[in-house]
Amino acid sequence: MPPLHGDRGQKQQVAEEDNVQVQYDAQETKRSFLRILRQSLDTGLPILGVVVIMSAVLFVREIQGQVAIVVLGILLIEVGIWKLAHQVLPGERQYLALRCETDLFITLVRQLNAAALRVKTNNSPTHRQEFEEVRHAMQQTVERIFEVAGKTNAEFADERGVMVSQGGIPQQEELAIDTASPE
Fold this sequence. Notes:
It is a single chain. The chain is mainly alpha-helical. The protein folds into two domains: 5-88, no CATH class; 96-179, no CATH class. 79% of the residues lie in helices and 0% in strands.
């Protein structure tokens, strides 16, 4: 009996889903490699710097050579401590607009708690108004989170007609303009 047309469509859909999963797995492998590399550099560079300094002191007889190698060791320690290798390696975050909105939401949670405590200690109209303003700002932020979820910076910038190099990630001032009611 020949396969049904629906059966072929289902097999094609499964094959497409498998292809997407393979691409996703490859991306995750690359990200985890970069994450492991960053972590290794964060701990390895200072250790390497100490080893270089100790080697200079123990094995180099010329004072000028020791000083040069010690300076190199100190630089390695500083690069590791200040995580300067992160500037060289590509960032793994693709959804910076979502990250920005999430950070804003967390800030608003703190403001909401502070406003709620003010209302709790002194239930004045001013404090209740502050509480409601933070609540309204949180609702707007949640709407923007839904808008940017699942969109890379490039996709978000394309929608807005802004090039990523021009700062396709919405800034706080832009976010305030986006949520303002039209006049």
